Automatic annotation (TrEMBL):
Keyword Signal: yes
PANTHER family: LOW QUALITY PROTEIN: ALDEHYDE OXIDASE GLOX-LIKE, SECRETED PROTEIN-RELATED
Pfam families to which the protein is assigned, alphabetical: GO-like_E_set (PF09118)
Keywords associated with the record: Signal
Example GO BP: carbohydrate metabolic process
Entry protein name: Uncharacterized protein DUF1929
Species annotation: Kitasatospora cineracea
Residues in Galactose oxidase-like Early set domain copies: 419-513
């Protein structure tokens, strides 16, 4: 969360949290006095009981408890009282302009070649961190903003005390293009950080690292202590368990420092990936680089150089880039200026099976620092993140929905043929090197079977990405699939199983779990 310093590992006094899919992030709020006024004394702001009660939200009371909900209400009242300089009319005009230009520009694209953006959904969460869970829901978490002026730092990066707090929501993706889905608050455990103030608050676990555990939980490691000015070392290390001798990876041949950017483990048929494509992180350089067998080679460039960009693997094996900016809070006109002099970063890019990149339609908002993207089980893409742009383009900053989600539909639903379906999959874990059965109502459409690992994403890096094809045979409505040969090909855990037709159109995925003990 630093303003100018990219970080690889973020922890001074690390907060470690493991997030379960059912009882995830649940802990009671601490007891507190409902009459405590955090803005009294040094801040000089007095809040009446009538003002407080008018600001308290029933949903926050239900999710967090009365004391915590009242504390959030006081924060909002104080925020409005002390922060000026970015009026609602500016936000509304910017949002209207971006909506209009997106529609005009995208009207020239064929969805069958470039896909299309279908939904723009107000959200209660910035979603600086996201993780697709094996329930099909998406965990999103970040922080309570300390500014609603996008020309200032919105995150409590250097804040010590109670305002340095985390928050989290579960989002159930929509079933159609008019449904916004469902949001559920799942606050992190309340902790008393070692900052000497004795002010418990929801754990400030933003700017942490996170990854999946084999049982489908998400492990979160680290977090923001507040006022620590932390920065990550510029290192890339591998650990070899055979000789235990840590060693640095060779540098990329371009020699440029990267400002975030993305990396993708490239598909490798039925085997686990044996190469990684590293791209982005420099808005002046569109080159991409492949790392395989301990060596770097230059791959086909994208059309644009970008920093803060996300790149995903589609179920059909093609790649997709979305989001991008010049710097951490810089969209081309300097730090903390949400205006964009060059709209190119709003365009997506698509990479085909031959490695060629093509520019596509524009997303609604520019999204850079803290942008994220996730492949959903129905094959669509969730795009979210970048609290500065979300705040700068909020048509109603007082609504409580200070985040947004945009849904992108890839080209494959428009490329012909009936979409396959999956009726049933194993409900018990599947072992390695085993055969397992899948039932379908469209066996004639099932040309390929694919496992796609769910994405957990933050700071433009979509970790855990992996795509494997499975050998497929069978007759009638019952298909026989071969699971991956070993955990080296697909680590234990939950995966989305897609069936694809000859044109690469995927089914809606079903979840299966790989386990070495099955």
């Amino acid at each position: 969360m630093t303003h100018r310093r990219p970080r690889a590992v973020l922890a001074a006094a690390a907060v470690t949290a493991v997030l379960a899919t059912a009882t995830i992030l649940t802990a009671p709020a601490p007891a507190a006095s409902a009459t405590t006024d955090p803005f009294a004394g040094n801040r000089g702001l007095r809040i009446t009981g009538e003002q407080l009660q008018a600001e308290v939200r029933a949903a926050e009371v239900a999710a967090f408890g009365r004391p915590a909900a009242e504390s959030m209400a006081r924060d909002r009242i104080g925020l409005r009282a002390v922060q000026t300089g970015y009026p609602q009319t500016t936000r509304t005009n910017r949002f209207t302009m971006l909506t209009r230009t997106q529609g005009e520009f995208n009207s020239t694209f064929d969805p069958a070649k470039s896909g299309q953006f279908k939904q723009y959904i107000p959200s209660p969460e910035f979603a600086d961190h996201v993780a697709l869970l094996p329930t099909g829901k998406v965990l999103m978490f970040s922080f309570e903003s300390v500014e609603d002026n996008p020309q200032k730092e919105t995150a409590p990066t250097d804040v010590i005390g109670r305002q340095n707090a985390g928050r989290a929501y579960l989002w159930t993706p929509p079933a159609n293009d008019t449904d916004p889905g469902e949001f559920k608050a799942v606050p992190p455990p309340v902790v008393d950080m070692p900052d000497g103030l004795d002010e418990p608050r929801p754990a400030p676990f933003f700017c942490a690292g996170h990854s999946y555990l084999p049982n489908g939980m998400v492990g979160v490691f680290g977090g923001n202590l507040g006022g620590n000015g932390g920065t990550g070392a510029k290192l890339a290390l591998v650990f070899d368990p055979a000789n235990e001798t840590r060693s640095p990876l060779p540098n990329r041949p371009d020699g440029f420092p990267r400002l975030y950017g993305s990396a993708v483990a490239l598909p490798n048929g039925t085997a686990g990936p044996d190469s990684v494509l590293v791209l982005g992180g420099n808005y002046k350089d569109p080159d991409t680089f492949k790392f395989s067998g301990g060596r770097w080679t230059k791959d086909k460039p994208r059309n644009l150089g970008r920093a803060q960009d996300d790149t995903l693997i589609f179920p059909d094996g093609n790649l997709f880039t979305v989001n991008g900016a010049v710097g951490i809070r810089d969209y081309g006109l300097g730090d903390y200026n949400p205006n964009v002099p060059d709209d190119r970063f709003r365009q997506v890019e698509l990479r085909d099976a031959d490695g060629n990149w093509t520019l596509g339609p524009k997303q609604r908002l520019p999204r850079g620092y803290h942008s994220n993207a996730v492949v959903l089980p129905d094959g669509r893409i969730m795009v979210t993140g970048d609290e500065l742009q979300q705040i700068a383009n909020n048509p109603d900053i007082k609504s409580g929905n200070n985040g947004t989600i945009e849904i992108y539909e890839p080209p494959y639903p428009h490329q012909g043929g009936k979409r396959p379906d999956i009726r049933t999959v194993p409900t018990q874990p599947v072992g390695y090197g085993k055969k397992f059965r899948v039932n379908t109502d469209s066996p004639d459409q099932a040309a390929r079977a694919v496992l796609l690992a769910p994405v957990t994403s933050t700071h433009s890096v979509d970790t855990s990405q992996r795509r494997l094809e499975l050998k497929l045979a069978g007759a009638g409505s019952q298909l026989l699939l071969d699971s991956p040969a070993s955990a080296a090909d697909a680590p234990p855990g939950w995966y989305m199983l897609f069936l694809l037709n000859d044109a690469g159109v995927p089914s809606v995925a079903k979840w299966i779990q790989l386990s070495p003990n099955a």
